[in-house]
Amino acid sequence: xxxxxxxxxxxxxxxxxxxxxxxxxxxxxxxxxxxxxxxxxxxxxxxxxxxxxxxxxxxxxxxxxxxxxxxxxxxxxxxxxxxxxxxxxxxxxxxxxxxxxxxxxxxxxxxxxxxxxxxxxxxxxxxxxxxxxxxxxxxxxxxxxxx
Length: 147
Description:
The chain is 56% helix and 8% strand.
């Protein structure tokens, strides 16, 4: 094999339980990030509680930067890496910024409808959730490679 060639990676659609495991892992990381932010904000305000639209916008911005940052750099968050899943476009390539933004916008709707958007994975043959379908992305499971 030529050294410039990379071996093909076999991947297949990641199931809902694996995706939810990664989501839970990422949620714990985001909560830790938010706790650090709020801790610093409370210290900066002299020990007074912090609330309001400004605080909510900062926490929302951290959530957006967390997901878009990880997805755009390596196609996976830390939780996704731990669960051996990756986000790709329909050609197996990294998704575009537009696809990432659409996905991040629709994902809360998938979850907020009692998870119906996630369980849409089981409808049809493409094995995609609502946010996968609308953003034309796939979450694939990449099995561990044996060394």
